[in-house]
TrEMBL record:
<feature type="domain" description="ABC transporter">
    <location>
        <begin position="8"/>
        <end position="261"/>
    </location>
</feature>
<protein>
    <submittedName>
        <fullName>Branched-chain amino acid ABC transporter ATP-binding protein/permease</fullName>
    </submittedName>
</protein>
């Protein structure tokens, strides 16, 4: 879609776990080329929202649509691997990598598993079944994305030896191998040092400038306020505020949720 067009449309999406309504008829849109923040207290339903968008969990009701081939198409009944192929890639709240393998191998395996949403461990041997040309193409793609995120000088380091900030960026490179138009990042700045957060924000701005749309769950308010174009705030599964970061920060419902709760 053209800049500003709707990329993702969440239309009264609901998720119940038994009696618990984790996502309560959520409604919001992500537009092309923006960084949108999804914030809210622990347990608000943010990760569940990501799992609905990526098809990891089925919605209880409601619809989710994604722009592809010039139209918004329903993805809420699609399997994860089809959703990835359409152009939605994600990272997880907790780093998922194989510490003993190199940075390049970690990203290449992620690329090979495009569609499996990062469940790397069980499929590590899958890479061995590729023929030489396929393996070369995979390594080339991985190297290209690692260079894009600024880790091109660390291809042959053990992934486990990287600082947490670099591991998070490695995971972004892995997601980029799926050739997404929408990137979902679940708390990418959690636990990072100040300088690492600055580097991460710089990378996300660069990806935005390249046309990427980004939906970001994050706890760190300073990070969110400085980076995002718009914000949606969730509490107890429900949207309690939406708008420009500065507006949202001053909304009574948000102050209540963060300070009064
Ligand atoms: P957040 O990411 O905003 O911290 P989550 O989406 O992880 O919140 O969780 C929202 C609510 O749903 C929490 O009360 C959590 O305990 C519950 N929940 C999440 N996943 C499941 C699950 N698979 N089964 C049952 N309850 C779940
Ligand atoms: Mg979460």
């Amino acid at each position: 879609p053209e800049p500003g067009g709707v990329v993702l449309q969440v239309d009264r999406a609901r998720k119940q776990f038994g009696g618990l309504v984790a996502v309560n008829d959520m409604q919001f849109e992500v537009r092309s080329g923006e960084i949108m923040g999804l914030i809210g207290p622990n347990g608000a339903g943010k990760s569940t929202m990501f799992n609905l968008v990526t098809g990891v969990l089925p919605v209880t009701s409601g619809e989710i649509r994604f722009a592809s081939d010039g139209a918004l198409r329903r993805i809420d009944r699609m399997p994860s691997r089809s959703i990835v192929r359409l152009g939605i890639a994600r990272t997880f709240q907790h780093v998922r990598l194989m510490p003993g393998m190199t940075v390049l191998e970690n990203v290449a395996i992620g690329a090979h598993l495009r569609g499996s949403h990062g469940d790397v461990a069980g499929l590590a041997t899958g890479i061995l079944r590729l023929n030489r040309a396929e393996e070369d193409a995979l390594l080339f793609e991985a190297k290209t994305q690692l260079e894009r995120v600024g880790l091109g000088h660390m291809l042959y380091e053990e992934a486990g030896s990287l600082a947490l900030g670099q591991q998070r960026i490695l995971e972004i490179a892995r997601a980029l191998c799926c050739d997404p138009t929408l990137l979902l990042l679940d708390e990418p700045a959690a636990g990072l040092r100040y300088k690492e957060k600055v580097a991460l924000a710089e990378l996300l701005r660069k990806l935005r400038a390249e046309g990427m749309s980004i939906l970001l769950v994050e706890h760190d308010m300073d990070f969110v306020m400085n980076l995002t174009d718009r914000l949606v705030v969730m509490e107890f599964g429900t949207k309690i505020a939406e708008g420009l970061p500065e507006e949202v920060r001053q909304s009574p419902a948000v102050l209540e949720a963060y300070l009064g709760g």
